[in-house]
Amino acid sequence: EVPLLESGGDLVQPGGSLRLSCTASGFTFSNYAMTWVRQAPGKGLEWVSAINTTGDSTYYADSVKGRFTISRDNSKNTLYLQMNSLRAEDTAIYYCARGLKSSNYWGQGTQVTVSS
Amino acid sequence: QSALTQPASVSGSPGQSITISCTGTSSDVGGYKYVSWYQQHPGKAPKLMIYDVSNWPAGASNRFSGSKSGNTASLTISGLQAEDEADYYCSSYTSSSTLVFGTGTKVSVL
User: Fold this and answer.
1) pLDDT, tens digit, 9 for 90 and up, residues A8-24
2) In the beta sheet, which residues pair with residue B99?
3) Which residues from A are below 8 Å from B when comparing CB atoms?
4) From CA A102, how far away is CA A90, in angstroms rounded?
């Protein structure tokens, strides 16, 4: 059983929007902070955003602040990333991961491509 | 939120030990015990190898060890094996309540 499964990645035009989802299974989702990390083609890991267990505290990298919104629905065991005003430099594989300061569970990633 | 500095590549022969450095500032690596190390094979998700500077998660190999001195953290791989060939990333919690990753190090087994 895959503990974290991302979905929602797609090809989108610059300026467009996309919502990523990450569905958790096999653990008590509401007990863990969650994180989004991305990796551009051929590049390193970049921390994007994180959210606490209840969803009332959220954190963002400067590169996405004001454009991306992280949220969660503990009743659905699901983490979200709403991405607006997308840019070419947002093209990457987006991973969801369990935890805030370190993550021992990662999803397999979902591809987001921003291109006209 | 500048990336932590890692060497681009490190290599070693099977059985040898290698060390990867991860240099930050007093606002991240030097200020907190929350340094982690990840291994990533091509096309795969990262795998946690070390957390909180020197702790092993369940299932991780004890051939991997971590330490920290000042603003620099280090990952040592002992008894290097062919399967250790991968990219390695450090990460640190920061004073802005965010996380920052290192630039990444490609480990080659000669």
Assistant:
1) 999 999 999 999 999 99
2) B93
3) 35, 37, 44-47, 50, 59-63, 95, 100-104, 106-109
4) 23
Which position has the token pair 């290192």? Answer: B102
pLDDT tens for each residue of B41-64: 999 999 999 999 999 999 899 999
Which residues are paired to A4 by β-bridges?
A24
How many residues belong to chain B?
A: 110
> Which site among A102, A106, A110 would you substitute to test the B interface, given the most B Cβ atoms closer than 10 Å to its Cβ?
A102
Burial bucket for residue A86 (CB in 10 Å: 0-12, 13-18, 19+): buried
SS3 content of chain A, % helix, strand, coil (to 5): 5, 45, 50
Decide if pLDDT at B4 tops 90.
yes
Cβ distance B104 to A45 less than 8 Å, yes or no, reads: yes
Selected for mutation to probe chain B from A45, A49, A62, A96 (highest B CB count within 10 Å) is A45
B51, β-bridge pairs: B55
Identify the band that residue B1 occupies on the pLDDT scale cut at 50, 70 and 90: confident
Q: Does residue B90 sit in helix, strand or coil? A: strand
- Whose tokens are 């309540």? That residue is B97
Report the candidate in A36, A37, A56, A53 with the shortest Cα–Cα distance to residue A45. A37
Whether residues A50 and B98 touch (CB distance < 8 A) is answered with yes
Using a CB-CB cut-off of 8 Å, the residues of chain A touching B103 are 44
